[in-house]
Amino acid sequence: MRTALTIAGSDSSGGAGIQADIKTMMAHHVFGMSAITALTAQNTTGVIDIMEVTPKFLEEELQCIFTDIYPDAVKIGMVSSAELMEVIARNLKKYNAKKIVVDPVMVATSGAKLMEDTAIATLKRTLLPMADLLTPNIPEAEVLAEMEIFTEEDMIAAAQKISEAYGCAVLCKGGHQKNDANDLLYQNGTFRWFRGRRIENPNTHGTGCTLSSAIASNLAKGFSMEESVENAKNYISGALEAMLDLGKGSGPMDHAFRVEGVY
Ligand SMILES: Nc1ncnc2c1ncn2[C@@H]1O[C@H](COP(=O)(O)OP(=O)(O)OP(=O)(O)O)[C@@H](O)[C@H]1O
Ligand SMILES: Cc1ncc(COP(=O)(O)O)c(N)n1
């Protein structure tokens, strides 16, 4: 069985973070493991508190994972502080981690800040250059490319800038665009659109976490970057189309939509 690791924060309401990642990996028949960077007390309406693990504890989590069940791919999500970013970068290098997908989570859909402003410089210096793929949403791509994004041409320019700066593929996600949900993959100087119609579903909590974990799962199974993005885009569209409706705010997605006879 192929294996994947998520290095991210826990979401007590189960819709984003580690919980979304493990559910996604399981739906892909990939064995999911986790190195938790922080516990969040949150639900579909917002985040009320965050408790980071210590750098020493994160180091121990990574040591336990990499010295036993080696992950075929790694996904990095919420990492709030510069100190934890340093620990992750050092250990991924030490254990020669492969197929690294970085979702540069900065702000939750609900508006809560999940990365300290002072950590952005460390993110750029440590984790971004190690990534095989970066998956910023539009506001994150604006921060990383230091430009505003209004049009599809802007998405291409920003993705190119980020790809050249960090030497990795970039998937600029269009979930925050007004019209269709079109994602742009830029790699090795060429780009390809993964187009999808906007699904009228207010419950989008954890879409970014789910997409990056689906890509990591596909990479773990040996698919190419383009195939992995295509499969993951189909997965997120299916999970949104299942129209699960839980909670009082922006609810989670249905990860069991491909399993027959579950209802
Ligand atoms: N309403 C929608 N209909 C179809 N696809 C969507 C919709 N919203 C988001 N997506 C897709 O979900 C994926 C995540 O995109 P998005 O831009 O929302 O990321 P994000 O902001 O990081 O997610 P999150 O809400 O977890 O922070 C992308 O593939 C995007 O196209
Ligand atoms: C632990 C954790 N990681 C990531 C997100 C971002 O997801 P979203 O933007 O959908 O709230 C989150 N809310 N919580």
From TrEMBL:
The residues covered by the Pyridoxamine kinase/Phosphomethylpyrimidine kinase domain are 11-254
Per its UniProt record, what InterPro entries does this chain match? HMP/HMP-P_kinase_dom, PM/HMP-P_kinase-1, Ribokinase-like
Q: Name one GO biological process term.
A: thiamine biosynthetic process
MF terms per GO, please?
Answer: ATP binding; hydroxymethylpyrimidine kinase activity; phosphomethylpyrimidine kinase activity
Q: Name one Pfam family in it.
A: Phos_pyr_kin
Its UniProt pathway annotation is: Cofactor biosynthesis; thiamine diphosphate biosynthesis; 4-amino-2-methyl-5-diphosphomethylpyrimidine from 5-amino-1-(5-phospho-D-ribosyl)imidazole: step 3/3; Cofactor biosynthesis; thiamine diphosphate biosynthesis; 4-amino-2-methyl-5-diphosphomethylpyrimidine from 5-amino-1-(5-phospho-D-ribosyl)imidazole: step 2/3
Domain of life (superkingdom): Bacteria
Q: Which PANTHER family match?
A: HYDROXYMETHYLPYRIMIDINE_PHOSPHOMETHYLPYRIMIDINE KINASE THI20-RELATED, PHOSPHOMETHYLPYRIMIDINE KINASE
Q: What family classification does the UniProt entry report for this protein?
A: Belongs to the ThiD family.
| UniProt cross-references to NCBIfam families, sorted A to Z | HMP-P_kinase
Stated name of the protein: Hydroxymethylpyrimidine/phosphomethylpyrimidine kinase
The species this protein was found in: Faecalimonas umbilicata
